[in-house]
Amino acid sequence: MPSGSTSTWNLTGGASTPSALGLTFKNAYKAPLRLAVFTQDTTLGPRGSRYTIDPDSEQTFRVGCKKGETVSYGAEAIGEDKVWGAGLSDDRPCEHCHQICDGRMLAYVLGN
After folding, report:
1. What is the rounded CA–CA span in Å between residue 24 and residue 8?
2. Is the pLDDT score of 69 beyond 50?
3. Cα–Cα distances in Å, from 7 out to 12, 24, 65, 73, 97?
4. Mean pLDDT of all residues in the chain?
5. Residue 7: which of 54, 50, 59 has the closest Cα?
6. Long-range CB pairs of 45-54, under 8 A, 24+ apart, other chains included
7. How confident is the model at residue 16 (pLDDT cuts 50, 70, 90)?
8. Pairing between strand 19-27 and 105-110?
9. pTM
10. CA nearest to 69, candidates 5, 23, 18
C-alpha cells in the first residue's frame, strides 16, 4: 500500500454480532507495523490475521462484536522490538488498548 494511504476492513467475530466498534490506526512510526484486533473470544478476521500498516498510512476497522464485549488491539514494528497495545498475542498489559463494543469510532496514532 502506498505511503499515506487509507484502507477499511470489516471484521466480524461470529454469527451474532449485533453491535460494532470502529477503530482507526495511523502508523506514525518509521517502520511498517503488524496489527491484530481481538475480542474476548477470538482474533478477528481469518484465524490469526495480522494486518500491515505502512508508515504514514492508516487503516480503519469496523469490528462486529456483541454490545458490551471487550475489544483490544496489539501491534509490533516489523523487524524491530517495538510493541503497542496488547501485542500480537493479546498477552501484554496495556492501559488504553481495551475498549467496550458500543458503536463508537476511536482513533489511535501509533508511533515513538
Report:
1. 9
2. yes
3. 17, 10, 20, 17, 21
4. 82
5. 59
6. 45/9, 45/11, 50/88, 51/9, 52/1, 52/78, 53/25, 53/26, 53/27, 53/110, 54/1, 54/2, 54/3, 54/5, 54/27
7. low
8. parallel
9. 0.81
10. 18
- Our CA dihedral for 103, 11, 68, 28, rounded to 10 degrees, sits at -70
Domain boundaries, the chain: 6-110
- Is 1.20.120.790 the CATH number for 6-110? no
The HSE-up count of residue 15 (CA atoms within 13 Å, CB side) is 0
pLDDT of residue 41 exceeding 80: no
Mean pLDDT of 36-48: 67
Q: What percentage of the chain reaches a pLDDT higher than 70?
A: 77
- Beta-bridged to residue 108, according to DSSP, are 25
Output the nine-digit C-alpha cell for 80. 524491530
Q: Which three cell numbers stand for residue 25?
A: 490506526
